[in-house]
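User: hey, got a sec? need Methyltransferase folded
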Amino acid sequence: MAKFNDIDLSRWKEYEDIETDSLWIIERRDNSGKHDGFYHGNFVPQIPRQMIKRYTKTGEVVLDPFMGSGTTAFECEALGRNFAGIDINTDMVKYVKRSFESDHNTFSGVNFHYMLSSDSTDFAAFSEIAGYLASKGINKVSHVILHPPYYDILKFTDDSRDLSNSDSIDIFLNRFAKVLDNSLSLLENNRYVSIVIGDKYTKGQWIPLGFYCMQEAMNKGLTLKSIIVKNMAGNRAKQNKNTIWRYRALNSDYFIFKHEYILVLKKN
Ligand SMILES: C[S@@+](CC[C@H](N)C(=O)[O-])C[C@H]1O[C@@H](n2cnc3c(N)ncnc32)[C@H](O)[C@@H]1O
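Assistant: Yep! Here you go:
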């Protein structure tokens, strides 16, 4: 099998930090380094860290078309990977750019963090990234991490092109599929895509957003490699409401959300 990471199998017992199970219980967000977790809707740095270590080599490029507060970008910096990112939230892109200007980690092998404030459903942003990569003598990215809004659970901006402002689930999935298409055009063959997504509950019904997004990815001809279930913990707002949710659940017919998915797919 082609090598797509830096894991040295002659020392395989030493990689205790790398997950290989499909159930991830992460007790606490790692807020070390540049991660401070202020952005509502961010993911824990441990997610991109696992994906980067498992699916990329030092010096390769990771693409995150929903980069938000830059969690993937900061992990790339710490792990010596290059980064290309897009977000429709201009303030966030400015914030992440500023964090690199003020305190640049000169980890060997990191040459660039290229970020655009743009709409990831529009191919123009990806063509700009392709142009930038070409100027560096690079053809393709080696991994794509997609952490879209969980439909309308949390509104990120007032921009109508923001996926969290989609008028229906079909429109949301259509837009997600476009971002996927655009991202795949930049991904090397035989490399991997991670999709981080949770479900939602509305009007008395569980909406399996995770499985819908997974189906969109499989419709693109990607091979499903893993469905990882990760616990959701440490959300202060939810903790305070735990008892009332439990009361409501006992009084009704549903279970309380405690997990989200990390879907791993391969581009053939
Ligand atoms: C779940 S958050 C990602 C958070 C990120 N992983 C982090 O740790 O900060 C989803 C992001 O998608 C962005 N977004 C929504 N629609 C978009 C679009 N059409 N193009 C680019 N970004 C978009 C939102 O602004 C938001 O920052």
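Quick note: Residues 39, 41-43, 66, 68-69, 71, 86-89, 92, 119-121, 147-149, 156-157, 161-164 surround S-adenosylmethionine (CB under 6 Å). Let me know if you need anything else on Methyltransferase.
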